[in-house]
Design brief:
five-stranded antiparallel beta sheet; 11 strands; alpha+beta; single chain; about 240 residues
């Protein structure tokens, strides 16, 4: 019996020793099976493609002389620069929260008319950058701006010209956005708008941007616009 037990113990010890030798001599599976090992790059910084797009032109709406104002109404209600963020006449989007509201923003208010509707005194006004923007070296561009408004049958259109105003393209009629139809009448504050205008303005040397407002002879609301910019499209 002792001999049998002794033989069994010797067999177990030999088996364990052999297994340990085999494990010790096994190759690294991460090298033999094509597994990649994790590595890090010291002092890594994101590429510039991940950064904010480069601004080509901008206006913070603090100086009226950089714009041309056109008004076809008889009420004396026009686009102008407001220095009071609280002038926005609707509590849900007042004061306007654009980045540079404290130094002025473009503002027009049909609410200041007081009505009545349909009396033939339509408010129709627009503002356009006074100096054409040279985008000759920029084929891929976007227009951005911050704004807030409350909708009630009034029209807001953003236009762009690539030939100094000879022709215009409406890049958006904001009033057609179902988001702002009744009863959801107010924008967020500020509303951030971005438009790819490459097909109109990319590579052009005399680019104009225009903001058009019409109350359609309705006692409507208002539009506040600020921090207008043209920049390169991100990759």
């Amino acid at each position: 019996m002792k001999r049998i037990l002794l033989s069994a113990c010797v067999l177990v010890v030999a088996t364990v020793t052999f297994a340990q030798q085999q494990v010790a001599n096994m190759p690294n599976e991460s090298l033999t099976k094509g597994y990649s090992t994790m590595s890090t790059i010291p002092n890594f910084t994101p590429s510039t493609a991940a950064a904010a797009p480069a601004t080509i032109w901008s206006d913070d709406c603090s100086n009226a002389s950089t714009w041309v104002f056109t008004n076809t109404s008889t009420l004396g209600i026009d686009w102008g620069i407001s220095m009071d963020p609280n002038e926005i006449p609707s509590a849900d989007v007042s004061p306007i929260a654009s980045a540079t509201a404290s130094n002025g923003y473009m503002f027009i208010s049909s609410d200041a008319d007081g009505g009545p509707d349909g009396d033939g005194t339509t408010i129709s006004a627009e503002f356009t950058n006074a100096t054409p923007i040279d985008l000759t070296n920029y084929p891929n561009v976007q227009l951005t701006f911050e704004h807030c408004f409350r909708w009630w049958h009034d029209t807001r259109i953003v236009r762009v010209s690539g030939d100094n105003g000879a022709t215009w393209v409406d890049v958006d009629e904001i009033s057609n956005d179902a988001t702002y139809s009744y009863p959801n009448q107010s924008s967020d504050n500020p509303h951030m708008s971005t438009y790819d205008i490459s097909s109109v303005a990319g590579g052009q040397s005399e680019v104009l941007v225009q903001f058009y407002y019409n109350d359609n002879d309705i006692w409507a609301w208002f539009w506040g616009v600020d921090d207008i910019a043209i920049s390169e499209l991100p990759d």
